[in-house]
Amino acid sequence: MTIAIVDDEKIELETVETFLRFYIKKFWAKYESLIHIETFCSPNDFLTFFNPKFYQVIILGEHLKHILKFIGFDNVKILFIKPQEELL
């Protein structure tokens, strides 16, 4: 499984990546070697490398909804990052 995390907010990007790696290690340890995580600090960088058959999960910063029109939804799960200040 290949997961892309896309957010131009560095702290949000690093927080999601850290949480995801911890979660995988704790709950899916036997599958850890099969899960590849790629991070992108820019939606343009992500779209340059995007291939709909390559990513199974895409995690986007909530303010990046505008790039959805460039992503096909065939077998791709899309998740959004809720900004931390909204969670407080």
Descriptive report:
The chain has 88 residues and is α/β, with parallel strands linked by helices. It is 33% helix and 23% strand. The protein contains 3 helices and 4 strands. The chain has helices spanning 10-27, 43-49, 84-87, and strands at residues 2-6, 36-40, 57-61, 77-81. The chain has a 4-stranded parallel sheet.
Could you tell me the radius of gyration in angstroms? 13 Å
Q: What percent of residues adopt helix (DSSP H or I)? A: 25-40%
Number of strands: 4
Given helix and strand content, the structural type is alpha/beta
By DSSP (H or I, 4+ residues per run), the number of helices equals 3
> SSE order, as H and E?
EHEHEEH
Could you list the spans in which at least 5 consecutive residues all have pLDDT below 50?
none
Strand order of the largest sheet: 2-1-3-4
Give the integer mean of the pLDDT values.
Answer: 88
